[in-house]
Amino acid sequence: MFRPGRCDEAHSRALPGWRYARRTMSTPSRTPLYFFEDFAVGSVREFGAMPVTREATLAFARDFDPQPFHLDDEAAAQSLFGKLAASGWHTCAMAMRMMCDEYVLDSASLGSPGIDNLRWLKPVFPGDTLSMRWTVLAARPMNSRPGVGLVQSRWELFNQQREAVLSMEGWGMYRMKKAAP
Fold first, then answer.
1. Contact 125, 56 (CB under 8 A)
2. In sequence order, what are the beta bridge partners of 172?
3. Rounded-to-integer distance, Cα 11 and Cα 5, Å
4. Would you say 84 and 74 are in contact if contact means Cβ atoms under 8 Å apart?
5. Comparing C-alpha atoms, which of 168, 143, 16 is closest to residue 92?
6. Domain architecture of the chain: domains with CATH
7. 132 neighbors 98 (Cβ within 8 angstroms)
8. Does the pTM exceed 0.90?
9. What is the mean pLDDT of each run of 10 residues along the chain (181 residues)?
């Protein structure tokens, strides 16, 4: 169970020297570790140490956000950022990757009905290393779907100086233990 104010060392990814490694779903049908009931309101977890690379910044920008300050050093130098900056949408994608690796892939997740608040607070640059704080704000059974619970969370992303670069709130849907097949 996720407990308020506690960061389980076995799940923490913000430990010094920890190298970020992507996970994959080896067996999509495996038994989840976390269900709706495991997300206690007030729980706080900190994790992640994701490096932001120039190559990934450029690749994402080329494919999804081809604004000059995400693609070209000279154009970026003339922008408000002053140097090449990652797309805000790339920052969101990196946050999602960290969430998947930390708990979503181990949970009975059924997706999300959406994000309520999203703020890009500071630019993210190649060379930054991102970490996350996840706080469970609310949890309740879903009225329209028996056996499914809604969990409201706040995700805060930080750079290596612990400056907040992104904040978002939203809901996740999780199967309940009593409804698990």
1. no
2. 151
3. 14
4. no
5. 168
6. 36-55+87-179 (3.10.129.10)
7. yes
8. no
9. 41 36 53 95 96 98 98 97 98 97 96 96 98 98 94 98 98 88 59
